[in-house]
């Protein structure tokens, strides 16, 4: 499993997930409002990318109890109509979103909760839409990922790896390098 997955399957395998409306996230301002409401960011959320990362990291870290049993799965965020995600914002906005989510999702070896997540991610982002729209979104992600940014391994300059899953058989996954 990877922290980022593009899928045309309607419902994730996890029993619970946070549902984000992509149509309510066409601009940075809308995205900050939608994510803050759905993920219950604190009232002091500063509505900028640094504050977004801080609140998302805090939310994903508090999803599991360090003293309790390991979580069944990482915090899952499902974005419906993902094609519309930051559609009216510049390409830097999508890059900023992906960087913030990747950094918040990745568990470093020295994190106190490192042993809780078997795949090394405390957050999973599912981008859901129709197959043709997912292909266009994948190109937007590739463009955003072509700039030097941290990848899932914490290295700068690497490409983002994502999973593109088609729902026709429910199991056929195709990995795409983004």
Question: What this model shows, in words?
Answer:
31% of the residues lie in helices and 17% in strands. It is an alpha/beta fold and 178 residues long. Strand 5 and strand 6 form a beta hairpin. The model is unreliable at 148-162 and 168-178 (pLDDT under 50).
List key phrases describing it:
alpha/beta; globular; disordered C terminus
Give a topology summary.
Layout lengths: L3 E4 L10 E4 L6 H11 L10 H14 L12 E6 L10 H15 L17 E6 L2 H15 L15 E5 L7 E5 L1
Parallel strand pairs: 1-4, 1-5, 2-3, 3-4
Antiparallel strand pairs: 5-6
Helix content: 25-40%
List SSEs in N-to-C order. Answer: EEHHEHEHEE
Q: How many β-strand runs?
A: 6
Number of helical segments with 4 or more residues? 4
Q: Which structural class do the helices and strands define?
A: alpha/beta
Q: Approximately how much beta-strand content do the residues carry?
A: 15-25%
Question: Gist?
Answer:
It is built from 4 helices and 6 strands.
């Amino acid at each position: 499993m990877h922290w980022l997955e593009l899928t045309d399957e309607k419902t994730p395998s996890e029993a619970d997930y946070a549902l984000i409306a992509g149509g309510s996230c066409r601009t940075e301002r809308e995205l900050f409002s939608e994510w803050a409401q759905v993920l219950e960011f604190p009232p002091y959320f500063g509505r900028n990318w640094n504050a977004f990362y801080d609140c998302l990291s805090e939310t994903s870290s508090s999803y599991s109890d360090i003293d309790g049993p390991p979580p069944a799965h990482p915090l899952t965020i499902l974005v419906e109509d993902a094609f519309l995600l930051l559609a009216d914002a510049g390409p830097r906005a999508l890059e900023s979103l992906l960087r913030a989510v990747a950094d918040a999702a990745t568990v470093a070896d020295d994190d106190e909760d490192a042993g809780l997540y078997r795949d090394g991610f405390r957050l999973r982002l599912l981008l859901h839409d129709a197959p043709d729209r997912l292909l266009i979104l994948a190109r937007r992600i590739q463009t955003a990922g072509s700039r030097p940014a941290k990848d899932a391994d914490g290295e700068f300059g690497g490409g983002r790896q994502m999973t593109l899953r088609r729902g026709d058989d429910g199991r056929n996954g195709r990995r795409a390098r983004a």
